[in-house]
């Protein structure tokens, strides 16, 4: 199993052979896969015919109890299942690191894999993840020299590449301001430097719980840079600490665990 980031539209179906050159995209460590053996006898032609039209949902009803194993990808994005018996296996991605927008879809693999007039018993597969880079957050306190001055926070997120036909359905942030910071409306948003609509609500104690999302995601594309700018007034002296979470969802069920933006700090006398 070789695990990499999705860098664009899917390529041709896999052959079970090592790909040369290796697929583009950074390797992903910490992705857990589970394999389950199916009740198909691959020494029988009829079962190969059944397998030909078997869907993943149908395969879930053919899982053999007790024939299950899990592996986690290493720093090279590789996970190896060794000494598998001849058969058909359902492969499911069960866990992935933060920043993964969408896990790879479950799929079926056979041992051996047909390879022209030969059989491949050393099968290589290359499922892809849609992965979002971690957001960043910066503080501009250039003009903040006294209590009551304003500072600006900028949350930056580069959108991940999506498979062909998939679209973004949500790009949003949450930001819990520390005590001593007061939100100053309105917040703004840009996509590749062009201002776009954003809706921000401020709730909670002192209206310091901020939630914002882009108004229109239909035209967003992978690789674009989204920025949210938030202005706050500094009401107490001392260290300024603030963090934010960014969430991205997609049309085919992709959804990040909210990813924490880097913390920025400042100091006001």
Describe the structure.
- 5% of the residues lie in helices and 46% in strands.
- By secondary structure, it is mainly β.
- It has a 5-stranded antiparallel beta sheet with strand order 10-11-17-13-14, with no helix packed on it.
- A hairpin with an 8-residue loop joins strand 19 and strand 20.
- The longest helix is centred in the N-terminal third of the chain and has 8 residues, at 45-52.
- The protein is elongated, with a radius of gyration of 24 Å.
- Mean pLDDT is 83; it is low at 9-17 and 20-24.
Kindly list the characteristics that best describe this protein:
single chain, 269 residues, mainly beta, five-stranded antiparallel beta sheet, 2 helices, 21 strands, elongated
Q: Which strands sit side by side, in order, in the main sheet?
A: 10-11-17-13-14
Q: Label the overall shape.
A: elongated
**Number of helices in the DSSP assignment:** 2
By helix and strand content, what is the structural category? mainly beta
What is the terminal separation in angstroms? 55 Å
Order of helices and strands: EEHHEEEEEEEEEEEEEEEEEEE
Q: Outline the low-pLDDT stretches.
A: 9-17, 20-24
- Provide the gyration radius in Å: 24 Å
Describe the biggest sheet?
5 strands, antiparallel
**Beta-strand fraction estimate:** over 45%
Please count the beta strands (DSSP E, at least 2 residues each): 21
Residue share in helix: under 10%
Nearest-integer average pLDDT: 83
């Amino acid at each position: 199993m070789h695990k990499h980031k999705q860098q664009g539209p899917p390529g041709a179906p896999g052959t079970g052979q090592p790909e040369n050159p290796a697929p583009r995209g950074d390797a992903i460590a910490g992705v857990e896969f589970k394999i389950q053996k199916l009740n198909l006898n691959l020494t029988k032609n009829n079962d190969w015919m059944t397998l030909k039209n078997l869907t993943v949902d149908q395969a879930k009803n053919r899982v053999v109890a007790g024939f299950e194993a899990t592996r986690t990808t290493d720093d090279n994005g590789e996970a190896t299942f060794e000494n598998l018996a001849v058969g058909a296996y359902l492969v499911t991605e069960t866990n992935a690191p933060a920043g993964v927008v969408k896990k790879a879809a479950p799929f079926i693999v056979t041992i051996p894999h047909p390879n022209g007039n030969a059989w491949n018993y050393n099968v290589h597969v290359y499922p892809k993840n849609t992965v979002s880079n971690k957001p960043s957050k910066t503080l501009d306190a250039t003009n903040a020299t006294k209590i009551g001055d304003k500072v600006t926070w900028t949350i930056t997120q580069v959108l991940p590449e999506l498979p062909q036909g998939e679209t973004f359905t949500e790009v949003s942030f949450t930001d819990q301001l520390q005590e001593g910071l007061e939100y100053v409306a309105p917040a703004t948003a840009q996509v590749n430097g062009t201002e776009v609509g954003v809706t921000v609500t401020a709730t909670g104690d002192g209206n310091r719980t901020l939630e914002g999302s882009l108004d229109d995601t239909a035209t967003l594309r992978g690789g674009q840079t989204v920025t949210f700018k938030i202005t706050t007034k500094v009401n107490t002296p001392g260290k300024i600490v603030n963090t934010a979470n960014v969430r991205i969802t997609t049309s085919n069920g992709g959804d990040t665990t909210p990813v924490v933006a880097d913390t920025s700090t400042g100091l006001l006398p």
